[in-house]
Amino acid sequence: MVTVKVEFLGGLDVIFDKQRIHMVNVDSSETPTVKDLIDYIVKNMIRNPNDVDVFIENGTIRPGILTLINDTDWELEGGEEYELEDGDVISFTSTLHGG
Predict the structure, then answer these.
(1) In the structure, what pLDDT confidence band is assigned to residue 99 with cuts at 50, 70 and 90?
(2) Rounded to whole angstroms, what are the CA distances from 75 to 11, 66, 67, 82, 91?
(3) 88, 70 contact by CB (below 8 A)
């Protein structure tokens, strides 16, 4: 099991009970990855099923949501395949704004 800090910024906190920061324990039979974390978030943290589409599209993080692993773009860290370590900080920031 790995414990990570997860941040929901740029208005995403609205679908997470208006709480921006969560400490999350990710358990997996192998070393947990960001994909495992995303699955956990969808299954356990998004209370309203209608809000899943705000966060996920085609099985991955929706375009327009900047995803950082320890303040580095997740694409540079391996994306969903990044193996989580205790103390990692995973940030999801919406860059989409309504008008």
Answers:
(1) very low
(2) 22, 10, 8, 9, 13
(3) yes
pLDDT at 8: 96
What is the DSSP code string of 4-68? EEEEEETTGGGGGTT--EEEEEE--SSS-BHHHHHHHIIIII--SGGGHHHHEETTEEPTTEEEE
Q: Which two tokens stand for residue 83?
A: 């193996």
**Which residues constitute the domain of residue 45?**
2-94
Q: Output the pLDDT for position 34.
A: 96
Instruction: Tell me which amino acid residue 35 is.
Output: K
Give me the CATH number covering residue 75.
Answer: 3.10.20.30
